[in-house]
């Protein structure tokens, strides 16, 4: 399948009853955009994104825990891929994680956020594993929020065959410009699609601004929500167009001089 529809959701997922809120969005999306094949929810959407150790520990669950089981049923009911953020508990550690569920209700992958912000480092352990998932829609590369600030991660995902980067976020004000520019750059750098969705609302000093968007392989916005209103943002993904762009002006991956690169990442020569 070379053309298909993706939708991202933005809302305040700190209000409680998050799984029911996610369910209502899935139902609404499938009524308004029945051709949708994948829905993406923000970072930690299942738990809420609150910088409190008490909150984090109380909401932590295994990757295949209650939120996964609940959303698995919806994935099967609507024949959907569902991506969503959760607080994962594994081996007595807590991770800021992203689950991807198949239309058959199978948990395809769990990605643990690698790059933690200063506000997160006392709450979570950092992940250390790249995650890509091959599906009938194409190959997805998984990252979360602040991961978008690191070009190397996006490049390594592309090297593993990624067509679409899924990057759910909880990106706060006043960094709206950085959110947009980093997402666009990671898409264009690697000639991939990138879908990101953000929280709205906030509490105290931390305020979220929405501005969820889907970017094309040329870094241009395909679809976006410019305000902080709760919203579903749909877009068409065309894998064939990505290949056409790679073979025309956006030929950076075939033109790059990897023989000159000396950057090391995890002991391997970057670009090799």
TrEMBL record:
<dbReference type="Pfam" id="PF00795">
    <property type="entry name" value="CN_hydrolase"/>
</dbReference>
<protein>
    <submittedName>
        <fullName>Carbon-nitrogen hydrolase family protein</fullName>
    </submittedName>
</protein>
<dbReference type="InterPro" id="IPR036526">
    <property type="entry name" value="C-N_Hydrolase_sf"/>
</dbReference>
<keyword id="KW-0378">Hydrolase</keyword>
<dbReference type="InterPro" id="IPR003010">
    <property type="entry name" value="C-N_Hydrolase"/>
</dbReference>
<comment type="similarity">
    <text>Belongs to the carbon-nitrogen hydrolase superfamily. NIT1/NIT2 family.</text>
</comment>
<dbReference type="GO" id="GO:0016787">
    <property type="term" value="F:hydrolase activity"/>
</dbReference>
<feature type="domain" description="CN hydrolase">
    <location>
        <begin position="4"/>
        <end position="239"/>
    </location>
</feature>
